[in-house]
Amino acid sequence: MGLTHTSTGAGAADAGLIIDRRSPEDRVIALAGNPNVGKSTVFNALTNLRQHTGNWPGKTVTNAQGRHTHRGRDYILVDLPGTYSLMAHSAEEEVARDFLCFGGADGAVVVCDATCLERNLNLVLQTLEITPRTVVCVNLMDEARSKGIEVDTAELSRLLGVPVVAAAAGRNEGLGQLMEAVADMAAAEEAPHTFRPGYPSAVERALARLEPVLARRLEGRLPARWTALRLLDQDPSLLCALEKFLEIDLMEDPEVRVALLEAQAGLKEEGLDQESLRETVVASLVRAGAEIAGETVTFHREDAARRDRQLDRILTSRATGIPVMLCLLAVVFWITIAGANVPSALLADGLFWVQDRLTDLFAYLQAPEWLHGALVLGVYRVLAWVISVMLPPMAIFFPLFTLLEDFGYLPRVAFVLDHAFQKARACGKQALTMCMGFGCNAAGIVGCRIIDSPRERLIAILTNNFVPCNGRFAPP
Ligand SMILES: Nc1nc2c(ncn2[C@@H]2O[C@H](COP(=O)(O)OP(=O)(O)OP(=O)(O)O)[C@@H](O)[C@H]2O)c(=O)[nH]1
Ligand SMILES: [Mg+2]
């Protein structure tokens, strides 16, 4: 499942906003993007680290840092959790937003999926509102090519007003150009004038009331227009973050309070409450994204997309999704159990032969019986059992599971089972951690971090023990 020491150990602990700068010349670049677009793959390729990558969203949940040297300058890359927006509706969104706003980054790279650029542009536009020092990396170009999707990166760059680089990080393509663009962006004296999504006139009027007041208060430490939008959205987490990272209490300032009340009253007059304001803002971003994608993305082969949709229907429909899943899991378990028998028996024979020789050695040395009992019949024998029973099924189960993950089948399992899990007040993603539990409960429990809600995560952790890991069902 790709759970490595770096992805689960102390190195994975939330580095927060603390950046390990070795020199003032170091440039800090945040890697943002939607879930599962290849941010960690770009990060790993450039830093030679091993962040967890895999074909399902939500693997990276905390910031990770690594270094890359380009043209003699050191860049600190920060791999952010995947998010669809920066409006801080989830823990990942808050982590990503806080870093972009307060992490002191010199710029951002927004990694996008070339096969569904339109959806990814939403985050690009939100990032541009926070920092114009952005490079867009259109990743997964190989996938897009095989699906007959063409992205006009030059036109995209012209429309967005920032550099756009095509890449296939999985194949190490385009990363040199990406770092060139990042270096140019970091070296530029002036930030570029980027595309700015427009909102309906009522929202623009409210923003115009708030923006100048905030600009005076924030003194360039955070973009006033974006902060005004978040204040109108009554985002309490931003106020907390402002206090925590910039020590600014906006609500203490009477001028800000008055401007906010007036702007809110104006919106109310136009019939926009908090809920409809949020919908209007999101709709404007989605519309702008769709317009830009319409001008830059060409679909050459509709049949490839149709084939994908047909496959998706088979794998996720109510009638066929569950039988296909049961068949696939049955095949995985059969291969694991039947396939593990032979290496298990060989390992047991070998390790117990060594145990007999150790017993001979202890007898030859006339060691006391209690020492032989403790070391050979205790420590060694237990270790030999654990290795011979658990290692072979794990060595078969996890690669098979990784294969299903790489084909993108696991998120579909979560989708198919979500309804049933919801009935038990749990989350569909728990299906993935339970499947991992069949391989190893410890890995399954660690994997529960992909579940957003703390309550659902706790349920998944507590119930994972009821999944018999293969050490419990594999014959010796
Ligand atoms: N074909 C292809 N696959 C890629 C490419 N880049 C990444 N991948 C695959 O895409 C999947 C997701 O990659 P990750 O790097 O884990 O994505 P991420 O954006 O870090 O995901 P989260 O941390 O969950 O947000 C993995 O299976 C990668 O191997 C690429 O250029 N081409
Ligand atoms: Mg990641």
TrEMBL record:
<dbReference type="InterPro" id="IPR041069">
    <property type="entry name" value="FeoB_Cyto"/>
</dbReference>
<dbReference type="Pfam" id="PF02421">
    <property type="entry name" value="FeoB_N"/>
</dbReference>
<feature type="transmembrane region" description="Helical">
    <location>
        <begin position="315"/>
        <end position="337"/>
    </location>
</feature>
<dbReference type="Pfam" id="PF07670">
    <property type="entry name" value="Gate"/>
</dbReference>
<feature type="domain" description="FeoB-type G">
    <location>
        <begin position="26"/>
        <end position="188"/>
    </location>
</feature>
<dbReference type="Pfam" id="PF17910">
    <property type="entry name" value="FeoB_Cyto"/>
</dbReference>
<keyword id="KW-1133">Transmembrane helix</keyword>
<dbReference type="InterPro" id="IPR011642">
    <property type="entry name" value="Gate_dom"/>
</dbReference>
<dbReference type="InterPro" id="IPR027417">
    <property type="entry name" value="P-loop_NTPase"/>
</dbReference>
<dbReference type="GO" id="GO:0005525">
    <property type="term" value="F:GTP binding"/>
</dbReference>
<keyword id="KW-0472">Membrane</keyword>
<dbReference type="GO" id="GO:0015093">
    <property type="term" value="F:ferrous iron transmembrane transporter activity"/>
</dbReference>
<feature type="transmembrane region" description="Helical">
    <location>
        <begin position="382"/>
        <end position="404"/>
    </location>
</feature>
<dbReference type="InterPro" id="IPR030389">
    <property type="entry name" value="G_FEOB_dom"/>
</dbReference>
<keyword id="KW-0812">Transmembrane</keyword>
<dbReference type="InterPro" id="IPR050860">
    <property type="entry name" value="FeoB_GTPase"/>
</dbReference>
<dbReference type="GO" id="GO:0005886">
    <property type="term" value="C:plasma membrane"/>
</dbReference>
<protein>
    <submittedName>
        <fullName>Ferrous iron transport protein B</fullName>
    </submittedName>
</protein>
